[in-house]
């Protein structure tokens, strides 16, 4: 399950900071991608494999706008993270690989990267 929290008085303001609580089941693969804003992510529960590192509760990852990360793999007990975005717009607009190379996708417009696996 994923939960979205928007900071500020206007829940739809595209420039408002936002937090996503991401609850990944065991073995879930978060596809390689980038966002259009600054972001950082804190592991809250469980573990996640990120490259050659295994991250656990309290570990932090960060990325600048356009900085690629992933794939990340949730550990055997799953993984819950809190991902803090500089803008709400940055939650939904991602860069990901396509058949024609990297491109921007906007989830609000129904644009879904080919490697994206939705969380139910």
List keywords for this structure.
single chain, 120 residues, mainly beta, Jelly Rolls, 7-stranded antiparallel beta sheet, 3-stranded antiparallel beta sheet, 1 helix, 51% strand, globular
Explained architecture:
The protein is mainly β and 120 residues long. Helices cover 4% and strands 51% of the residues. The protein has one helix at 88-92; strands at 2-6, 18-24, 29-30, 34-35, 39-50, 53-55, 60-63, 72-85, 93-98, 101-106. The strands form two sheets. Strands 1, 2, 3, 5, 6, 7 and 8 form a seven-stranded antiparallel beta sheet that branches. β9 (93-98) and β10 form a beta hairpin. The model has no long low-confidence stretch (mean pLDDT 94).
CATH class: Mainly Beta
Residue share in helices? under 10%
- Average pLDDT reading: 94
Structural class: mainly beta
Assign the CATH topology: Jelly Rolls
If classified by CATH, what would the architecture be? Sandwich
Largest sheet: 7 strands, antiparallel
Radius of gyration: 14 Å
CATH superfamily: Jelly Rolls
Uncertain runs: none
Number of helices: 1
* Share of β-strand residues: over 45%
What is the end-to-end distance?
6 Å
Count all strands and give the number: 10
